[in-house]
Amino acid sequence: TSNEMWGGRFASGPDAIMEEINASIDYDKRLYEEDIAGSKAHAAMLADRGILSAGDRDAIIGGLETIRVEIAEGRFAFSRQREDIHMNIEARLAELIGPAAGRLHTARSRNDQVALDFRLHVKSALEGFEAGLTAFIEALLDKAEAHADTVMPGFTHLQVAQPVTYGHHALAYVEMAGRDLSRCRDALSRMDECPLGAAALAGTGFPIDRHQTAEALGFREPTRNSLDTVSDRDFALEFLSFAAICATHLSRLAEEIVIWSTPQFGFVKLSDAFSTGSSIMPQKKNPDAAELVRAKPGRINGALISLLTVMKGLPLSYSKDMQEDKEQVFDAIDSLNLALAAATGMVRDMTIVTDRMKAAAGHGFSTATDLADWLVREAGLPFREAHHVTGRAVARAEEKGVGLADLTLDEMKALHPAITDGVYSVLTVEASVASRTSFGGTAPDNVRASAKAWREKLAKT
Ligand code: ARG
Question: What sequence ranges are listed for the domain Argininosuccinate lyase C-terminal (predicted)?
Answer without folding.
Answer: 365-434
